[in-house]
């Protein structure tokens, strides 16, 4: 009889597989982050653009209405993919984090260092909490219906109050050349931009337009209701993408 020889091949193979999986993850995860950064920043620049670039354009009427409609698209599409295939409620947090990271890099390198705009004028708004809200709602309800009904509504409702602690200091009233305006308006007058300046293209014509008043909550509630339909629509688009032949798992 011969002594049994331990099978080291299986152990070696398992260790090598784990090492290969780890190396693959270390390669693919940064690539996915870079992909999301590029896609989301380009998408956000096209749909929101100046509303989020400049501090004096983040008004009480159009900025909180346009932003949730644009920022919900990729969390819905990629969120459906990650949840359907991997059961990971990370679509909103991952994509919006990539957007914020790309925005900070772009604002600092392009707007601040290259164009000499102060960071106080061009810093990105805070949106990561909105992605966390969508993902937590999906994790708790496990339902796209309730995630859209509650989560997407809160995304549209909370954009303005979530950024208010940062924006409040720029809404302080000041007098300049006999005209009552805000600190954000002073930035817009003092720093010339290549786009049409605000004194030629008035964003919102009213008295003390950036101090809140009744328009802000009405806009937030309206944005929340519109964003529910917007979220459900892009969830449907994501479901169509998952069912496509090129992304279907081959057995």
From TrEMBL:
Alphabetized InterPro entries for the sequence: NH3/CH4_mOase_suA_sf, NH3_CH4_mOase_A
Presence of the UniProt keyword Transmembrane helix in the record: yes
Keyword field contains Transmembrane helix: yes
Keywords: Membrane, Monooxygenase, Oxidoreductase, Transmembrane, Transmembrane helix
Transmembrane segments: 27-49, 61-83, 90-109, 121-140, 145-167, 218-242
GO molecular function: monooxygenase activity
Pfam family, any one: AMO
Protein name per its UniProtKB record: Methane/ammonia monooxygenase subunit A
Natural source organism: Solimonas aquatica
Lineage: Bacteria, Pseudomonadati, Pseudomonadota, Gammaproteobacteria, Nevskiales
